[in-house]
């Protein structure tokens, strides 16, 4: 599987894409929900963070898939609510 996807700059499209990736990879889904619980976040907020992070970058409309970003770029809260750039 490629780490890059063609992205439509639309939160609804991005939300559906993340849901699709999670439905195809149950380990990812479990890891996402475990991480969200630890961070006291909900999935919609994570989707918005992902959208905010990917839209400004990219190469000819190709950007990193959510799965890749989650495992390599997600914010890690070890300081009581402070985020590392997603």
What does this structure look like?
56% of the residues lie in helices and 7% in strands. It has a two-stranded antiparallel ribbon. Helix 1 crosses helix 2 and helix 1 packs across helix 3. The longest helix has 14 residues, at 11-24. The chain has helices at residues 11-24, 26-39, 43-54, 66-73, and strands at 4-6, 62-64. It starts with a strand and ends in a 13-residue tail after the last helix. With 86 residues, it is mainly alpha-helical. The chain has four helices and two strands. The radius of gyration is 12 Å and the shape is globular.
Write the layout of secondary structure elements.
Elements: E1 4-6, H1 11-24, H2 26-39, H3 43-54, E2 62-64, H4 66-73
Antiparallel strand pairs: 1-2
Helix pairs in contact: 1-2, 1-3
Concise synopsis of the structure shown:
The chain has 86 residues and is mainly α. It is built from 4 helices and 2 strands; from the N terminus they run βαααβα.
């Amino acid at each position: 599987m490629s780490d890059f996807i063609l992205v439509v700059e639309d939160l609804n499209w991005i939300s559906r894409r993340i849901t699709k990736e999670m439905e195809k990879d149950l380990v990812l889904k479990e890891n996402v929900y475990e991480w969200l619980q630890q961070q006291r976040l909900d999935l919609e907020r994570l989707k918005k963070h992902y959208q905010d992070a990917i839209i400004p970058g990219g190469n000819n409309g190709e950007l990193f898939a959510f799965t890749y970003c989650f495992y390599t770029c997600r914010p890690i809260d070890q300081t009581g609510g402070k985020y590392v750039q997603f």
